[in-house]
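Hey, quick one: can you model this chain's 3D structure?
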Amino acid sequence: MECISCGSSDVLNRVVVNQLTRHEHGLFCTDCERSQFGELLSNSAWHQEHGCAFCDRDGRFALPELDCLIERDDGSARLVEHGRLEEAVRLCERHVEELLPPETSITRTIEA
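Sure thing. Here's the predicted structure for all 112 residues.
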């Protein structure tokens, strides 16, 4: 599997999960996490209990840490285990979209 932001398969660290449907939209690598957030996501005191971490919108997406990833021979995920959604940083749709490359849209993956 590859990072949904940069396409790298190196050191995947977080999962982008829709909290309502529990659908896993993809993985986020350590380099992209650092470039977008610095060390903020590793600081549990920074996490909010409800809503987006950056605005007052609904925090529909969680970014829990990846615990285990088992891939099929074709590179697709067979098993993804992650930390508790309740303890993960949350982002609204707009802020998740900002993490993605311009040609990618989380709304397209939601509707698919």
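One thing worth noting: Residues 108-112 have pLDDT under 50 and may be disordered.
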